[in-house]
Amino acid sequence: MTRNTGAAVYVAGHNGMVGSAIVRRLTSLGYVNIVTASHSELDLVDQRAVRAFFEANRIDQVYLAAAKVGGIEANNSSPADFIYDNLLIEANIIKSSHDFGVPRLLFLGSSCIYPRLADQPIREEALMTGALESTNEPYAVAKIAGIKLCESFNRQYGRDYRSVMPTNLYGPGDNYHPVNSHVIPGLLRRFHEAAANGLDEVVIWGSGTPKREFMHVDDLAAAAAHVMELERSDYCAKTQPMLSHVNVGTGVECSIAELAGLVASVTGFTGRLTFDSTKPDGTPRKLLDVSRLRSLGWQSTISLEDGLSDAYHWFLVHQGDFRGRILEGACGSPS
């Protein structure tokens, strides 16, 4: 579609890693009417509050990047919180968007929606064809529900609500909690502290053999804006039926052991890497098929090495700000 930089664009979860990256991207594209609301201003699990927000603001586009997220340990210890909060957030925003006539919405999901043992690389058609990874099943079920909400409003009411499924994300604004973080921020913090304290060993959860695909959040934001701006006819031609979802990733994978080596190099750690195989590995392999996204005219540009250096620089600048919390609105799958 023709870019309307004056459109009122609501970014839900703008304080989180993905939401803040989307705000940066939209600003760089010239958008001048970006609507945001912090958690203290708007509780997204409160249906009445969300409806009142949409009634008070004439919104043209919604980026639904708000979510409760965390790593394997957080998902294992708080499964009820993860499924309940995420279901409410997406249901409230998608329904209010429909009720108040928002023409276009982009829902940001997670690659953990796919079966644990899906054929690799994972195509969009793999959705709901097998059992999910047990360590993050509640979160994944909530994200699947978000996709189906968008599809259902498109089918029943002719809405143009789209979904993108990012691979594992990292970058500025990530959560560096020592327990509740995803794999890259967790490793960056651990290796940084080990190097700073002169330690000769870093212990890493799992065997190191699982393979993952990692994407810098600024790449994700660029892809999200690209998908949002596509003409409806172009998007539908690649995503039938019912304006379904699109994978967003780099198409490149590496093992956790290889990742740990890169993080050690970036942080200057020169000691021993030890893998604790008594800890869970999660899904053995997870690489997204991004051919559909490429057919829509977009592909990743930030390499893992460059992205890790950027993420570590952000960590060094902001490490004093961390309070050990799960950041509001961050989006991406647990490792």
Automatic annotation (TrEMBL):
<feature type="binding site">
    <location>
        <begin position="166"/>
        <end position="169"/>
    </location>
    <ligand>
        <name>NADP(+)</name>
    </ligand>
</feature>
<keyword id="KW-0560">Oxidoreductase</keyword>
<feature type="binding site">
    <location>
        <position position="281"/>
    </location>
    <ligand>
        <name>substrate</name>
    </ligand>
</feature>
<dbReference type="InterPro" id="IPR001509">
    <property type="entry name" value="Epimerase_deHydtase"/>
</dbReference>
<dbReference type="GO" id="GO:0016853">
    <property type="term" value="F:isomerase activity"/>
</dbReference>
<feature type="binding site">
    <location>
        <position position="182"/>
    </location>
    <ligand>
        <name>NADP(+)</name>
    </ligand>
</feature>
<feature type="active site" description="Proton donor/acceptor">
    <location>
        <position position="139"/>
    </location>
</feature>
<feature type="binding site">
    <location>
        <position position="212"/>
    </location>
    <ligand>
        <name>substrate</name>
    </ligand>
</feature>
<protein>
    <recommendedName>
        <fullName>GDP-L-fucose synthase</fullName>
        <ecNumber>1.1.1.271</ecNumber>
    </recommendedName>
</protein>
<dbReference type="GO" id="GO:0070401">
    <property type="term" value="F:NADP+ binding"/>
</dbReference>
<keyword id="KW-0511">Multifunctional enzyme</keyword>
<feature type="binding site">
    <location>
        <position position="205"/>
    </location>
    <ligand>
        <name>substrate</name>
    </ligand>
</feature>
<comment type="pathway">
    <text>Nucleotide-sugar biosynthesis; GDP-L-fucose biosynthesis via de novo pathway; GDP-L-fucose from GDP-alpha-D-mannose: step 2/2.</text>
</comment>
<dbReference type="GO" id="GO:0042351">
    <property type="term" value="P:'de novo' GDP-L-fucose biosynthetic process"/>
</dbReference>
<feature type="binding site">
    <location>
        <position position="190"/>
    </location>
    <ligand>
        <name>substrate</name>
    </ligand>
</feature>
<dbReference type="GO" id="GO:0050577">
    <property type="term" value="F:GDP-L-fucose synthase activity"/>
</dbReference>
<comment type="function">
    <text>Catalyzes the two-step NADP-dependent conversion of GDP-4-dehydro-6-deoxy-D-mannose to GDP-fucose, involving an epimerase and a reductase reaction.</text>
</comment>
<feature type="site" description="Important for catalytic activity">
    <location>
        <position position="112"/>
    </location>
</feature>
<feature type="binding site">
    <location>
        <begin position="13"/>
        <end position="19"/>
    </location>
    <ligand>
        <name>NADP(+)</name>
    </ligand>
</feature>
<dbReference type="InterPro" id="IPR028614">
    <property type="entry name" value="GDP_fucose/colitose_synth"/>
</dbReference>
<feature type="binding site">
    <location>
        <begin position="108"/>
        <end position="111"/>
    </location>
    <ligand>
        <name>NADP(+)</name>
    </ligand>
</feature>
<feature type="binding site">
    <location>
        <position position="143"/>
    </location>
    <ligand>
        <name>NADP(+)</name>
    </ligand>
</feature>
<feature type="site" description="Important for catalytic activity">
    <location>
        <position position="110"/>
    </location>
</feature>
<dbReference type="Pfam" id="PF01370">
    <property type="entry name" value="Epimerase"/>
</dbReference>
<feature type="domain" description="NAD-dependent epimerase/dehydratase">
    <location>
        <begin position="9"/>
        <end position="231"/>
    </location>
</feature>
<keyword id="KW-0521">NADP</keyword>
<keyword id="KW-0413">Isomerase</keyword>
<dbReference type="InterPro" id="IPR036291">
    <property type="entry name" value="NAD(P)-bd_dom_sf"/>
</dbReference>
<comment type="similarity">
    <text>Belongs to the NAD(P)-dependent epimerase/dehydratase family. Fucose synthase subfamily.</text>
</comment>
